[in-house]
Amino acid sequence: MTLVNKTAVLEIRDLRTSYFTEGGEVKAVDGISLNVPKGKTLGIVGESGSGKSIMALSILRLIFNPGRIVAGELLYNGADLLKKSEKQMRSIRGNNISMIFQEPMTSLNPVYTVGEQIAEVYQIHENMNKKQAMSKAVDMLRLVGIPSPEKRVHQYPFELSGGMRQRIMIAIALACNPDVLIADEPTTALDVTIQAQILELIKDLQQKLHMSVIIITHDLGVVAETCDDVAVMYCGKVVEYADVRTLFTAPKHPYTVGLLNSLPRHDVDKEELEAIKGSVPSPFELPEGCRFAPRCPHAAKICFEQLPELNKLEDRSQVRCWIYTDKWGQQPEVNRTP
Amino acid sequence: MKTELLNVKHLKQHFPIKGGFLGRIVNHVKAVDDISFTIYEGETVSIVGESGCGKSTTGRAIMRLDEPTSGEIIFEGSNLLALNKRQMNKKRKDLQIIFQDPYASLNPRQTAGEILEEAMEIQNVVPKSKRRHRVIELLETVGLAAYQADRYPHEFSGGQRQRIGIARALSVNPKLIICDEAVSALDVSIQAQVLNLLKRLQREFKLTYLFISHDLGVVRHISDRIIVMYVGRIVEVADKTSLFEHPQHPYTRALLSAIPVLDPDRKKERIILKGDVPSPIDPPPGCVFHTRCPYATDRCKEEIPQLRTAEGAAGGHQAACHYMEEIQNGSMERAYS
Amino acid sequence: MFQYIIRRLLQTIPVIIGVTIIVFLLMHLIPGDAAQVIVGEGVPQEQVDQIRENLGLNEPIPVQYFNYIGGLLQGDLGDSIRSSRPITDEIFTSRFWITMELAVYSTILAVFLGLTAGIISAVKRNSAADVGIMIIALFGLSMPNFWLGLILIQYFAVDLGWFRPSGWGTWSQNVLPVITLGTGGAAIIARMTRSSMLEVIGQDYIRTARAKGVRERVVIYRHALKNAMIPVITVIGLEFGGFLGGAVLTETVFAVNGMGRYVIDSIRARDFPVVQGTVLVLSLMFVFVNLLVDISYRYFNKRIDLN
Fold first, then answer.
1. Is the domain of C64 the same as that of C212?
2. For residue C126, is it left (φ>0), alpha (ψ between -120 and 50) or beta?
3. CB within 8 A of A194, min separation 6: which ones?
4. Which residues form the ABC transmembrane type-1 domain (chain C) (predicted)?
């Protein structure tokens, strides 16, 4: 197994997004290159502060002051999104590339009915009048599995449960049959039985509508269940990029391994969790060399001095770690506990 | 021999809903509806369930942060609900609670040291002259450094703040600590540190935990016994291994099957429940789970199942379902899958 | 909705009763003998007794109150001591309407200016326009309106001669008092709108709207403004009430013959029944406007349905 080798519908090349604050420049996304293969799912994993959500918003160019996309290319069907005008970009948002967010409770406008909010997408992108758009909204509600859609379409968000609202968000995002769906922590705020429903729904609709999905999450379980390729992010950089099976069976970066080992499991008993020591560094005081070095159990001198490149390995996965280079003498045991 | 520390009997917590012309009480949110359970000294019991199942309400009711509607909460032989306010405040020395959001539960204008000293002062556990010394001892116990005593909550990271919350709970030498989603807001790598800390403290100080969480991975890791709640009722109680290996109640089965596993190759059989959790305002009659249960029959719609031990299940493993045996031996048909 | 309006109306009844009690007690809070105070010093005792008898001050207080309420229910606010005419006639022939016009125009001005400035400030946050608007708003807020009135008269009426300095009724008479009264309110509404808009613009659903491809102008006016209006509406309601009170000064400065000036004159003349009557009418207006605010809330905030 290797990274999905399929035409990329979206290619992210050396994307850099920074926030210019009083404390200085925060490189939230610091040179990221990824491919979103057609019809497949790319997972982006990381903890808070890894820059994963900002990277997602950058794809739609929804970065506002004091943030700015500083450099990079976003090739969507070969054309660079960063070179498009704001008007062209608007016709892509919600139409060709859509996004759903973590908090279904707050992501819907409280003063409009869910029907109006879905219909708006058709009014913007397909020039429909309100009546046509509302009837399409009912169809969308049915598609995302909302019971009695004719009635629900006239309800306000507060009248619906969290799971229902996330279905509404999905209906809004998929209304115009996009090529790419970006799902930013789509199930984090939901209960586990509802999470299962929503993930199933996304997978199901992905097949039906032949779209690519980018799932951004901190939950490795969600990644294992839904993704084809996975990128692990830490402090604005990709530290490991591999297909899902390679990532879970042969994780390489000590951070990835640390994440897997520190996770309490519902299917295995562990006496002590192997926690990663310390905490994510402040974005104003990033370490000189490898950003994970201060927390890494294997860190050597070079790790504190030089930032490693994202190297391609034999199994075609990519790792940003000195251990996997010829500058490293002896390879230590970097293993996932069973 | 195990000693009972806490015994909750027929606890009910119904919150009134007001409405109508004159603000009459029109209905109740039956957040907790007649639950009973026991916690023994030195063990960790977890309550798991989804939002609105009443798990946090139970924790708050035990602490009497909300006054329960009825029931008994026997702590070391005396009923907490029969105590007056002053007696209860004194009792709170033995019962402490840690909340999910460490930032919201720490006074932003107090330093870590002041927060801990105040806790000691309220319960008067350490003479004034020795409090400073004890603060430093506590900080070191929870993995913080002495110099951090003079810092304010906003100067700490989320994980460190939760450590302060733990130190505050420890400062009065409690017997029972209720952890209400105490690690839910933390990143995985930090969560592991805090879980390890809680386990270590339990060994060192012989603590008893009531751990309230929605995260089954965390619950498996920390608990000895587990209570599963659904819409205000207990649907299953068992020791950890028995619950995870041989879940009896169809809700527990669905819950366990819904958790994503860390192995892309293992496609496990997943039970995806239809619909949403019913509202605790008008919980379904009979078994509260019958609206979503793939096995539900007419009997489930009418008769409330009592907690009982299924034939062949481990001792102490109880669940509230009419058809555990039939589901186990495969003679029940699923209405959907 | 209908049920809600009925309920809100019922809820105002105790408020109105409270208002009448307080207004009624005004007469009894005057230190010493009310009748004596009204007629002043050096008047024969018989005349004082006569006034006392006319005002019914010899009855026990509860009886007096019920007589008062009985009068109110028939639209009788008592008679003015100065003119001996019914106060209802004195107020509602023209004065009430003049004050209402002044307050309504000022509210319209304040809402229009305040909302526009607040929205611009919020959308162009930290820009020169934002800073400028907020500085002007601070001036508007801290300037006493009688002083502003005097400055406006001096500059626009006396020096430039664009408007007439006094009276009410024609366009050139109305402009200056409305500006005088409306400015402070506009400043408050602008600040409120700004902070409310900023909060709403940071909300997740605004991000959702942008991610749908909605144009920025539509994001602001359709998605943000309706949510941001919820706290602003309250302020507008309070401002309207404030204008009724502010009318006292403004009407005096511009010699407008409305309720405000009538109150002042009556206080000077110790015509307490008139003071009582005007205060009652103004208070009831205030209660009524707040009722309207509460009802309009429902239009903006659907969630109130649940509570």
1. no
2. left
3. A161, A162, A163, A166, A187, B50, B276
4. 96-293
| Model pLDDT for residues A167-214, shown as the tens digit of each residue | 999 999 999 999 999 999 998 888 888 899 999 999 999 999 999 999
pLDDT band at A331 (very low <50, low <70, confident <90, very high): low
Closest residue, chain A, to B144 (C-alpha)? A278
Mean pLDDT of successive 10-residue stretches along chain C, which has 307 residues: 80 89 80 72 79 78 86 85 85 89 93 94 91 92 86 90 86 90 92 94 93 93 91 87 84 89 86 87 87 80 54
Q: Any idea what the CATH number is for the domain that residue C251 is in?
A: 1.10.3720.10
CA neighbor of A266 nearest in space, from B262, B235, B62 = B262
Residues 6+ apart with CB under 8 A from B280: B29, B30, B31, B33, B52, B54, B231, B232
ipTM of the complex: 0.88
Same domain, C125 and C55: no
Lowest mean pLDDT: which of A317-321, A330-334, B279-283, C166-170? A330-334
Of A191, A279, A295, the CB nearest to B159: A279
CB contact, 8 Å: C217 with chain A? Answer: no
**Residue in A103, A109, A173 closest to C209 by CB:** A109
A258 vs A241: CA distance, rounded Å: 16
Percent of chain A at pLDDT exceeding 70: 96
User: Which residues in chain C are contacts of A156 at CB distance < 8 A?
Assistant: 302-303
Q: Say which amino acid occupies C285.
A: M
| Whether residue C35 is found in the same domain as residue C132 | no
Is C45 found in the same domain as C106? no
Residue A338 pLDDT greater than 60, yes or no: no
Do C235 and C267 lie in one domain? The reply is yes
Q: What is the mean pLDDT of residues B91-104?
A: 86
Q: Is residue C109 part of a domain?
A: yes
Chain A interface, best mutation among B257, B276, B279, B281, by max A CB count within 10 A: B276
Query: Does the residue C90 lie in any domain?
Result: no
- For residues C201 and C281, state if they share a domain: yes
**Cβ count within 10 A of residue A86:** 9
Both C119 and C221 in a single domain?
Answer: yes
Which domain range does residue C130 map to? 96-300
SS3 state of residue C84: coil
Domains contained in chain C, number: 2
Chain B: give the shortest CA distance to residue A129, in Å.
32
In a domain, C8, yes or no: no
Say yes or no to pLDDT of B207 above 70: yes
| For A175, nearest residue in chain C (alpha carbons) | C212
If asked whether residues C121 and C213 sit together in one domain, one would say yes
In this predicted structure, the answer to whether residue B21 has a pLDDT above a threshold of 60 is no
Taking CB atoms and an 8 Å limit, are A264 and B222 in contact across chains?
yes
Query: Residue C302: which of A92, A101, A111 has the nearest Cβ?
Result: A111
Crossing angle, helix A162-174 and helix A192-209, to 10 degrees? 20
* Residue C23 in domain: yes
Domain ranges of chain B: 246-328
Task: Give the number of A-C residue pairs with CB atoms closer than 8 Å.
Answer: 67
**How far is it, in rounded angstroms, from Cα A270 to Cα B224?**
13
Q: Is the pTM of this model over 0.95?
A: no
Specify the residue for token string 């069976």: A249
